[in-house]
Amino acid sequence: LLELKNVKKIYDMGRDIQVEALKGVSFSIEEGSYTAIMGHSGSGKSTLLQIMGCLDRATSGDIIIKGTAVKDMNDFQLAKFRNKTIGFVFQSFNLIGNLTAIENVELPMIYAGVPRAERRKRAMELLKLVGLEEPEERAFHRPNQLSGGQQQRVAIARALANDPAVILADEPTGNLATNQWRRILDIFKRLNESGKTIIIVTHDPLVGQEATRIITLEDGAIIKDERIR
Amino acid sequence: LLELKNVKKIYDMGRDIQVEALKGVSFSIEEGSYTAIMGHSGSGKSTLLQIMGCLDRATSGDIIIKGTAVKDMNDFQLAKFRNKTIGFVFQSFNLIGNLTAIENVELPMIYAGVPRAERRKRAMELLKLVGLEEPEERAFHRPNQLSGGQQQRVAIARALANDPAVILADEPTGNLATNQWRRILDIFKRLNESGKTIIIVTHDPLVGQEATRIITLEDGAIIKDERIR
Ligand SMILES: Nc1ncnc2c1ncn2[C@@H]1O[C@H](COP(=O)(O)OP(=O)(O)OP(=O)(O)O)[C@@H](O)[C@H]1O
Ligand SMILES: Nc1ncnc2c1ncn2[C@@H]1O[C@H](COP(=O)(O)OP(=O)(O)OP(=O)(O)O)[C@@H](O)[C@H]1O
Ligand SMILES: [Mg+2]
Ligand SMILES: [Mg+2]
Prior knowledge:
The structure is a homodimer.
Chain A: E1 2-12, E2 18-29, E3 34-39, H1 45-52, E4 60-65, E5 68-69, H2 75-85, E6 86-89, H3 101-111, H4 116-129, H5 135-138, H6 148-159, E7 166-170, H7 178-193, E8 197-201, H8 205-208, E9 213-218, E10 221-227
Parallel strand pairs in A: 3-8, 3-9, 6-7, 7-8
Antiparallel strand pairs in A: 1-2, 1-4, 4-5, 9-10
Bound molecules: adenosine-5'-triphosphate (2 copies) and magnesium ion (2 copies).
């Protein structure tokens, strides 16, 4: 499904300072797989996930999705592909501050041209699915009127809005207590069983155990790639 | 040191909708203690911590700090007290986007009137203390040029800037891998042994175990208050 070949990411800080966030990463992800990317803070996980999700461009190297090189797509094609195929959960949620929770979940559906009534219905179902407390009411809170874990679950609901084939989640359980993140991981498990490809960045070994493959990063390079069960 | 009596927090959403985030919370915190506040997402932990840290006012009830009722302080006195006595780590870090990491750590010291050279020296020491990678370089990154866990550690360094007597930390380890949060908890342990009062909000039982007392919230009320060892 997705192939990375010698992908590098260098941040240029000016004045001759460069940060090598990714130092030549290569691996492939099979369709329908469940992969966890683990590693210390600063090891390059978010950078890698954003490049895989077409939210950022690699400095060099190849990213090939279903046979097409991402390099050969223009920004418009990339955005369209991303909207339909990829659901991305950001480490810091990236919710729109002046939209309500439910409007945030509807946003990807607006871009995809889903009609109003259908959007609203599906958005509310998703907020209930992720376990948002008192959803009929909290749906109309803005992000700063929600707790950290509630914002996180709204971000997850938004990522699922267009029923994407690939879900990329950056630390999706960091703000949740056990039974609440267990619920989220059960959703990911069900989606994976129905054929979706799941890639989770986490530093929580309990969350990593959900996957059948764990790729470990350190200082921008892959130091371990293990398949389990 | 700190006493809460029947503290309530109600968010008024207009149109007759009210959120009872805290429903009458009472307890006291002894000087030099190490307390963990745990509970599900949405149970009121951040709301409680912000009221304890004088960053927000209760709707009703009393908060008494070292014998003085917070009600009787005006906003200016409250701000001054907060700056000198309380170090607060926010769940979403609240770093200033257009300042560098080191400038963010210096900010509380600027308010406290610490001279420039001393501020810069202490800020760099704190960034090294919390384990920021390549600190001489990363100190000059802005928050969006840092990883999630790096931002979290900068937020912790900032909270320690004025060597406060009370440290209130809202989920301070959520973005860190094991040895990295272990390092943060060792800092808190050392500070506690030197007499500081520590209050950590967490939903991670491993982090909660660091404390000698665990207060558990559910739906805005205390459902358990246990002292361990
Ligand atoms: N500004 C606000 N306006 C309205 N409701 C709010 C506001 N801030 C928080 N709430 C609500 O108050 C309740 C408690 O929120 P709080 O942020 O204290 O929870 P929490 O225990 O810290 O959760 P988490 O673990 O997810 O951070 C939540 O149900 C939330 O929706
Ligand atoms: N915009 C940027 N400019 C410069 N350096 C950056 C930028 N974004 C990230 N970095 C650096 O690149 C490295 C990798 O960052 P990344 O966010 O991918 O780490 P991470 O593994 O996701 O960490 P965490 O677990 O803390 O979220 C870090 O050392 C960080 O300081
Ligand atoms: Mg990250
Ligand atoms: Mg909170």
